[in-house]
């Protein structure tokens, strides 16, 4: 058909010169060849895309467009195919990722980036995969910690997961389990270490604080470091029977206005509980919380009034709160935000608005013309036009009489009508938010304003709502009831008023109802009774004749109209989402005292049963019994009896013979139990010693897995010397070093090597006993678990799988 059209055109232009005709022929042949080849290339690209070979389809069109950059058909096909291919690949990747197929999703996203390297959807998808893998690694560690009953570590891992993905279901489940256990543990404290959970009975009367702490230190094998402002001679009076050592320490800190900072598993720093010391020693962390539903400023007001965090910033754009404070405050803030950042309740309102109207109209009688006209016609035959010369020729034929046509109309009409104006909108609204419905018109009203100074008149247009207007503000209650403030207004234009200047105004008739309802879910309420009744009676008579009794009916026309309308509103609330009440353990949690925030309440008690009888060897330690050199005496540790007996340990003054037989030195090593590959970490080396002999000991480690970074002595450099070898550090400690360091010797910094597998290793401290010296722990072992730096390295055959799927 195209060739036929072009040939007709050539025949029509037969008078063109030969060179011109040849040029036109060449142009037409090229156009025809282009038109015939374009659909073929595009169809082939479409077939490739339909077969899933999106890259080949886009590449084929890209090559054609590069060869013919002026061809808009190729350009449009290339853009359309590229967009469709990217959408298909990204949709497939998201679907496979939602089904847990991480490797396939990564390959599909990479294919999308092969088509468009800057495709934001694919880049975001790869970032989500990295987050998902990192979250999966944290989830595995959380589950492993949960199996080992390490709920603190499990809670930390799930907090990291939920900070990136608040909707992670498995992490939410683990967090709920941890919090449920924490709630029960507040009533029944969890055993953390055998020493801290020993039952002791103490009677301390005016004992110095330092000596009381030393007494507990010997029993719990803890190291205490006192701030310089702590009064060591503060008298401590304490009478405790069968209480845990941990609870005794906590109550001493609360009673005597002290705070503690955990340096490692066996070392506590004790300082006065004042604002200056808290600012110096308290470790602050910064965390960002993202609000999913609640307004960030409302959450900020809640946190300020309840927790009073040190620093807080609100970002309205990202709907986030940045809080800097202690871990206890951050965890309490997390719980409060979780409780109050919930999806708002919503209700679906089924509304039916009916206006039932009845119209009765009658028109009976004879309607005569209302006027008769008389006119004069001249030779121009135009009524009312007469020449001056024609005045003398006026006769009876010059006058014409005009009456209505028809002369009379017999009206015999009686109309009865009824109408229902129905509006049935459905609207969904949040709790305590107003919903507006307007069914009608916006009538323009023009107003004019005159400037008294310049005399300039300006006009403005405002719009008047006319019709059916409904305003509803629901409030949803937990008992599946909805309270609603309802305002219904029905208006219509009664008449139009035109001013002297031509401006128009409107008289509006309005019917309004305001009420407050409380309905159950699915209950329908009818609001009726807004009735409008309008009755009009009118007569048209022939003057004089219409007033004759009886005969006057022939000269009278009666017109009667009766309009009655009633407005009916039916409203039915259907709750879509109600207020979700939190679990009991989540809505109530311990937060310490007014001056001291804590998430775990202290309690003088333990899981063991209490005994009514007092221990036989309970000793009251008085100030007079303290050694003159301000060093507390060596107190022999009495181990707990068997679990079956459950009897508490009574602390007593040491027996000299027993003290001589007990070990004089104890080495300890504190550090993390798990670390990622390639990450540095610190371990703390400490010793409890009571003699004055020189001590030599070594720290050994696997140099294939660990690398020594530095050794930082806590004691003076001349008191502790060391030499590092391959996989070993040799130490020499002088007696003066123990007094200056309060038994903490050094901090050792190590770094794990990058690894693709999980490894278990140990740090081993071995000591050489000098003549006359007994090392309580000749060999101390610290287990360390090394995890791969990234879970990507744990994915097997991933590259091979990607190559198989790649085009």
TrEMBL record:
InterPro entries: Bact_Secretion_Sys_Channel, GspD/PilQ, NolW-like, NolW-like_sf, T2SS/T3SS_dom, TPR-like_helical_dom_sf. Its main location: membrane. The keyword Membrane applies. Residues 417-577 form the Type II/III secretion system secretin-like domain. The keyword Membrane applies. Residues 637-657 are annotated as: Disordered. Gene3D superfamilies: 3.30.1370.120, Tetratricopeptide repeat domain. Residues 1-22 form the signal peptide. It is found in: Cell outer membrane; Membrane. Keywords: Membrane, Signal, Transport. GO terms for cellular component: cell outer membrane; type II protein secretion system complex. Residues 286-345 form the NolW-like domain. GO terms for biological process: protein secretion. Belongs to the bacterial secretin family. This is General secretion pathway protein D. It comes from Halopseudomonas litoralis.
